[in-house]
Write a structure and sequence with these properties.
Layout (H helix, E strand, L loop, with lengths): L10 H4 L9 H17 L12 E3 L5 E3 H13 L6 H5 L12 E3 L2 E2 L15 E2 L13 E4 L5 E3 H5 L18 E3 L5 H16 L14 H22 L20 H23 L3 H6 L22 H22 L6 H6 L6
Antiparallel strand pairs: 1-2, 1-3, 4-5, 6-7, 6-8
Helix pairs in contact: 3-8
């Protein structure tokens, strides 16, 4: 290289600025953007938050209908008792007892509209501060009312100002915590409750596989006699999946959401069975224009034209005549040899 009028760049010219660690201001801006998103969107489905809103032991916010839908899907698959927990937030939610419905106070202009399109404007009912990334908010367990943390600290006693329900300081849950101390405190509280046999909502933990055991025992009692009479003893029967029902749910709001989710799943399953497959229809198309339309693509073949059949029959007849003349040499003449056509097989 050289003597061509060019130059060789050095590292100082190529690397203008070395990579730097983000400053504290940049970290705060990124953290505020993330908090602002999760204050307005469900942490499970990434859809806008809408009343009713629930929260787990880590302080994340979810749409209640999304949690119910995932729990119903997990309850249909009995391969593992912790399917719901593994599906939802790394095992923090295994049933509705692991979440608490958070009761937020809305601004007056937003109080009557709780749809996703409106964008909820949450405020503290005591200080009327706007709850969000700029204000540290908490909710109380088990009542679920949300306040600004400063308002909870200034409360005279350990009673909720909205419903007068008593609470312990350990059950004041920060919403979307950012500090390491708050996260460690929530993990320690969760382990303490599990060792005492309680969930996040201070209710008893259900036994493992309780729904599955009930479904299997009821199914065995109902179907044993019918299976023996139809198939005979020793022949295994196909097990039916457990279908959850909303009739056993006492809460009216939860029951209506469960019924809505079940209706959507049933409609989706019916649509999947009734709509034909387009890929299979292309194999049996009636507009191909080929011979043998009524036959399928495996039995469809080719036919020999009538003229070819006639020509083949004439060729065979001529070949037979030539074989007979060859057996009698005295009958072969030069004229017959010249006039003989080419053998057609």
């Amino acid at each position: 290289m050289g003597n061509d009028g060019g130059s060789i760049p050095t590292r100082r010219e190529l690397v203008k600025e070395a990579a730097k660690d983000p400053s504290s201001t940049q970290i705060k801006e990124t953290q505020n953007e993330k908090l602002e998103y999760y204050w307005s969107h469900c942490a499970l489905t990434q859809k806008p938050l809408a009343v009713p809103i629930v929260s787990d032991s880590t302080g994340n916010l979810y749409n209640k209908d999304a949690v119910i839908e995932q729990l119903l899907i997990a309850s249909n698959n009995f391969q593992d008792d912790n399917v719901a927990g593994n599906k939802l937030t790394s095992g923090t939610i295994q049933s509705l007892r692991d979440v608490v419905e958070v009761h937020f106070s809305l601004e007056e202009e937003n109080a009557n509209d709780t749809t996703r399109s409106s964008g909820l404007k949450l405020v503290c009912p005591v200080s009327r501060k706007r709850l969000g990334p700029g204000v540290k908010a908490v909710y109380l367990v088990p009542c679920g009312h949300a306040f600004a943390e400063s308002a909870v600290r200034e409360m005279p006693g350990e009673q909720c100002l909205e419903c007068n329900a008593t609470y312990a300081l350990d059950h004041v849950i920060p919403i979307l915590p950012t500090s390491i101390a708050d996260k460690d405190r929530l993990r320690e509280r969760d382990s303490t409750l599990h060792s005492a046999g309680l969930t996040h909502s201070l209710k008893k933990i259900l036994g493992p596989g309780k729904k599955r055991k009930k479904a299997e025992s009821a199914k065995e009692v109902d179907t044993t006699d019918v299976a023996d009479s139809i198939a005979g003893p020793g022949i295994p029967q196909k097990e039916e999946a457990f279908v959850p029902s909303s009739k056993a749910i006492k809460n009216e709001g939860t029951a209506s959401l469960t019924a809505k989710v079940l209706a959507e799943q049933e409609d989706r399953n019916k649509r999947r069975k009734t709509v034909p497959n387009e890929n299979l229809q292309t194999l049996f198309s009636a507009s191909s224009g080929m011979v043998g339309k009524k036959s399928d693509f495996m039995s469809r073949g080719f036919t020999i034209p009538a003229e070819a059949k006639r020509a083949r029959a004439v060729a065979r007849e001529h070949n037979d005549q030539m074989r007979q003349t060859i057996r009698k040499p005295e009958m072969i003449t030069p004229e017959a040899t010249l006039q003989s056509p080419i053998n057609v097989i």
